[in-house]
Amino acid sequence: MTQDVEMKEQPAPSNSVPSSSPSTLHHLKEIASLIETGAYDREARRILRAIRLTMALRRKLKASVLSSFLSFALTPGSEAFTRLSSYLPKEDENEMEVDTATSTAQPPAKHSLPELEIYCYLLVLIFLIDQKKYDEAKACSSASIARLKNLNRRTLDVLAARLYLYYSLCYELTGTLSEIRSNLLALHRIATLRHDELGQETLLNLLLRNYLHYNLYDQAEKLRSKAPRFEAHSNQQVSHGFLLSLSLNCYPLQFCRYLFYLGKIRTIQLEYTDAKECLLQAARKAPVAALGFRVQCNKWAIIVRLLLGEIPERTVFMQKGMEKALRPYFELTNVSLSLCSRRLTL
């Protein structure tokens, strides 16, 4: 992945482990600087780049690194610093020596920006989810959402949308997704009043997923029909938030997820023609890397086409990486084909 921010190497101190590349803490400080610049200049694109760079560092995040970064980005003793530090396990002393060795190069921020504070929530939340500490992740995500409700800054929209995703994920992983439905509805209402288009689109998808998770298709359709819809964005005239989410690949599956959920709703409503169009479009527009998502789209599309009396092409089942997952559907298609042949002979 090409980095959007140049990471300049610094000579390693004599008391640290020799390394030819900057430390994870150094990269996080570079990202924090990028967020600060984006906040002061009101450029959401810089914050988008910060998120993309953070995802590249995701596997390198450690408790010791995060503790050092919190001390750098937040005011020590502040409410946010105390709360986030409580979610992190005690760091290893050896790791602290390596990570804090580079922390002396820059002094901690005197006044934390709201964007930096929310970014710290996001970092800790990602770490807790990766460590499978779902109870702590739920508490952290709830605290971050409570903080977001009191902030109304357009430069926070991108960070907020990402937090909404992880907020829902935490509750889904713990089997308590229904608990946040009313809160998601309230957040969607707030995003609409604040003209936060990216937040509206993200929360609409999360609400549809919430309803469909419990097979509440009628309620999902009622919400979808009344909420601002993705179809309102044409290829030539696209909203600013939606353009950012797609052009910079921050949320490449956003529109595809909406089409997938709409396709499932149309299938249950027996509107197979519309369902087929939505599902095939979702599979076609999805990024190549989103293999699992494309597999699900193809599974539903095959079922819908069979219900329409169509026989999917063999190439559908031979797509790279999908052969094993679609094998049962290939056999089902062969059975349907043989039944059709028998009827014709009769």
UniProtKB/TrEMBL annotation:
Disordered: annotated segments: 1-23
Transmembrane segments: none
26S proteasome non-ATPase regulatory subunit 3 N-terminal TPR repeats domain: residues covered: 23-239, 254-333
Entries under PANTHER family matching the protein: 26S PROTEASOME NON-ATPASE REGULATORY SUBUNIT 3, 26S PROTEASOME NON-ATPASE REGULATORY SUBUNIT 3/COP9 SIGNALOSOME COMPLEX SUBUNIT 3
Source species: Gossypium harknessii
Pfam families hit by this protein: TPR_PSMD3_N
Biased composition (Low complexity): 11-23
Coiled-coil annotated residue ranges, if any: none
Protein name per the record: 26S proteasome non-ATPase regulatory subunit 3 N-terminal TPR repeats domain-containing protein
Biological process (GO), any one: ubiquitin-dependent protein catabolic process
GO cellular-component term (any): proteasome regulatory particle, lid subcomplex
